[in-house]
Design a protein that fits this description.
Blueprint: E1 10-14, H1 16-19, H2 22-30, E2 42-46, H3 52-56, H4 67-72, H5 79-98, H6 102-129, H7 141-166, E3 171-174, H8 187-194, E4 204-208, H9 217-221, H10 225-237, E5 241-246, H11 255-258, E6 268-269, H12 271-279, H13 287-296, E7 300-304, E8 313-315, E9 328-341, H14 351-361, E10 365-371, E11 375-381, H15 384-397, E12 402-414, H16 423-433, E13 440-443, E14 449-454, H17 459-472, H18 480-487
EC number: 2.7.2.4
GO molecular function: aspartate kinase activity; ATP binding
Enzyme class: transferase
């Protein structure tokens, strides 16, 4: 296919949790009320079924080892093989849930067995090769990680294409995983070659969320690669819009915390806000994936996969707000404040870079940062073990410094423009009404987010208080002076 001057198709990504609800997806995103031509001019990029990538790599939250972690660990011996067999069994059970007819189920099972046993043979050969001193396993682990991860994406894409064919849709399985492909291409070349002979007006491509390419997506994005695939497919094919289907709406707060009746769907915002949400772990879209869409002028729509009639939230770079206001209140628990204090740093350069090097070396995620004449504080998300290693490195590099570590929560009020004088005092007043004393407040010049640091025990109460004060009861009519008086 070739790009057109007036694009008409969309590129749509379905996440793993949503993919697990296959029968519901048929009635909403995949088919729904569509008939004939309305089924086409779409490209579907799919993630692995929920939990499958955790089993193949490691659990995203708990860190429980999967096949990859066991293979990478020299102490695990051959236990990775048993773990791979369990993944295979899990995949076959998923096939049985989806396909009730013998023919399609057997085709799906053959596909899974071929991929699983192909990977098993490859890993056995690699382990034997690396048992000799001339070959180091560490040099191949990224490739192993990519190969294992691609198994889940390939199964879900293959199954979805097969299922749609059973329902009369002219679907096509588009495998970007590089399975048994001896050539190496850039990501754009991989996509261009895959879509070269596809007529979007007559076919519905079901694309693997993982793409094997020269850039090595997992090296940069790790498990956020499917959003990169989405964005580059949209750009290369010249899409009119990119769509991400989630199992929930992009709302003003977590309804489980502030209440279903209190939250509202955001509706529209820009990529700047999307970046802030990603920093808070919301992951509307990976910031680097958003860059491609921004530069190409392609809007992104975030929809609830199971509320198909709702338009969702559209994200565009040119969407400015009509008046300053908070659009979302979100946050993170388990944030570590790493406070580095050294009176020798006054007027001296180099401390910042040393701290950043240590954080980068131990792969610790920086959420925010503050500094003054002799103190630099980073607010971090990561394992305590990794952060302790950072602390140890810095103590060795700066023996005269005092380094403190504290666990807290960070809550952020986010919007396209918070350039309204009453927002900060209203936030403080809302917290005071609930008896919450903030440990710190960051109100930066760009006015896209207001960050409040609180004790972990105050996390949910802070979310509710800020949402009520800055969104539910916000009028925008209070003057700066009256808001300040309310605080007093």
């Amino acid at each position: 296919m070739t790009n057109t001057s007036s694009p008409s198709h969309t590129v749509e990504k379905i996440g793993g949790t949503s993919m697990s609800r296959t029968s519901e997806l048929l009635d909403t995103v995949l088919i729904g009320d569509r008939k004939g031509e309305d089924l086409y001019n779409r490209i579907m990029v799919v993630s692995a079924y929920g939990g499958m990538t955790d089993a193949l790599l490691e659990h995203k939250k708990s860190g429980e080892p999967g096949v990859y972690s066991l293979f990478a660990s020299s102490e695990s011996g051959w236990t990775w093989g048993d773990a791979l067999s369990k993944v295979a069994q899990r995949m076959l059970e998923k096939n049985a849930d989806i396909f009730t007819d013998d023919g399609p189920r057997e085709a799906a099972d053959r596909f899974v067995k071929d991929r699983i046993e192909g990977v098993r043979s490859c890993l056995i050969d690699l382990a034997r090769l690396c048992s000799f001193g001339h070959f180091q396993l560490e040099q191949h682990l990224l490739t192993v990680r990519e190969m294992l991860s691609s198994l889940g994406e390939a199964q879900s894409a293959h199954n979805t294409a097969l299922l749609l064919k059973m329902h009369g849709v002219n679907s096509r399985f588009v495998d970007l995983t590089g399975w048994r492909d001896e050539n190496q291409y850039t990501l754009d070349e991989v996509i261009d070659r895959a879509f070269a002979d596809i007529d979007l007006s007559r076919e519905l491509p079901i694309v693997t969320g993982y793409a094997q390419c020269r850039e090595t997506l997992m090296k940069t994005y790790d498990r956020g690669y499917s959003e990169v695939t989405l964005s580059r497919v949209a750009v290369v094919t010249g899409a009119a819009e990119a769509v991400i289907h989630k199992e929930f709406h992009l709302s003003s707060a977590d309804p489980k915390i502030v209440g279903e009746d209190a939250v509202r769907v955001i509706g529209e915002t820009n990529y700047d806000v999307a970046d802030q949400l990603s920093n808070m772990g919301m992951e509307a879209i990976h910031p680097r994936a958003a860059k491609s869409l921004r530069q190409a002028g392609i809007p992104l729509r975030v929809k609830n996969a199971f509320d198909p009639d709702h338009p969702g939230t559209v994200i565009r770079s040119d969407l400015e707000t009509r008046e300053p206001h908070v659009e979302m209140v979100t946050g993170l628990k388990g944030v570590f404040a790493l406070e580095f204090y050294d009176q020798d740093m006054v007027g001296v350069k180099g401390y910042d870079s040393e701290i950043l090097d240590a954080l980068t070396r131990h792969k610790v995620w920086i959420i925010a940062k503050t500094s003054n004449a002799n103190t630099i504080t980073h607010f971090l998300k990561g394992s305590l073990q990794a952060i302790k290693r950072v602390e140890t490195d810095l103590a060795k590099a700066f023996p005269n410094s005092d380094i403190g570590l504290r666990k807290l929560a960070l809550v952020s009020a986010i919007g396209r423009s918070l350039n309204e004088p009453s927002i900060l005092p209203k936030a403080i007043a809302s917290l005071a009404e609930e008896g919450i004393m903030p440990l710190g407040v960051h109100d930066l010049i760009r006015k896209v987010d207001l960050q409040v640091l609180v004790e972990e025990t105050d996390f949910e109460a802070t979310l509710r208080a800020l949402h009520r004060g800055l969104i539910e009861n916000w009028t925008g009519e209070r003057s700066d002076q009256s808001a300040l008086e309310a605080v007093a």
